[in-house]
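[step 3/7] fold_predict: job queued, chain A
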Amino acid sequence: MSDWLFDLGNSRLKFCAWRPGLQFGDMQAAAHASESEMGALPDEVAGEVAWVATVASDERRHALLQALRPRFARIGFARSSMRFDGLQVAYPHPERLGIDRFLALLAAERAGIGPVLVVGVGTALTIDLLGREGRHAGGLIAPSPTLMRESLHGRSARLPASGGRRVGFADDTDDALASGCEGAAIALIRAAMTDAAGRLGGPPSLWLHGGGAVQLSPALPSAEYRPALVLQGLADWVGGAAVAPVGGR
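[step 4/7] structure written:
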């Protein structure tokens, strides 16, 4: 019987089956508009241990727990730490580093490819630089293009929350919004790449993950899209952590 890995964000729940020491199964993802939708998991989602990484609200965390308890004997939560194997984070208070960022960095460090700029595009846009020898150099947090659009729509209903395409100079409001919000994110990523290259003496690799990453990828040709990066980091964390699962039926 497989364990399962869960990445609970503010907009989506991603999950997959996993057997220790083996490659994990196909990632599944579900948007959650309300806490009540957490219980609508496929029937095959059940096993011994559910391993969870979450940056979502307490309400959504509780809703996920309620959905998992009848399906799993134990439930364990990943936590950020200052050091984990070869990873050393820059935060003096590692509990303030979002677990999604921590796990994405851990997956990048375990890949052993050298310096990497790790960019998550979800509700927030997060940018973290993993330097040489597994040293986290710090990061940036900004609104994602989706959150920018939703915020503008919330202040002015005439500005649509979605739609349009990114162009140089738009002659339509939808395109102008897409161009401005996506362009702001792309510009920040490019600036971070330039800063990182100056610090390192050469450009790092660029990895993108998160639900909004696909939209930005065409403007960042050097980027690699890693949709399951947080789940991969969670598998790495479970495999190396000397922790006892908590919770249960």
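[step 5/7] annotate
Residues 242-249 have pLDDT under 50 and may be disordered.
The domain at 83-230 is CATH 3.30.420.40 (Nucleotidyltransferase; domain 5).
exit 0
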